[in-house]
């Protein structure tokens, strides 16, 4: 009977060893899942921040360069610009101003498609 008790004891020890291994593997798998879940959460947060940045959520309503230029331009220039006074007497400058106006008038006086359409209708 001692051999039966020895075999029973051997099976009991083997079963205990197997249960410890299962517990160790389960704990290892649980830690691995927690690490993976943590990494996934961090990646999702970074992706959400990146998407928000790409869509412009972090842009200010008013660009920083515009207020600086609007504030400094009037402060730097005097009320009367001396360059305008010197250009006023220059005939070359006056011709350029009238040339722009005539170019605008020429483009508006000559309807390209309008006359062709009216001739075909008449």
Automatic annotation (TrEMBL):
This is Uncharacterized protein. It comes from the Bacteria. Keywords: Membrane, Transmembrane, Transmembrane helix. The chain crosses the membrane at residues 35-56. Residues 59-122 are annotated as: Disordered. The keyword Transmembrane applies. Residues 77-122 have a biased composition (Acidic residues).
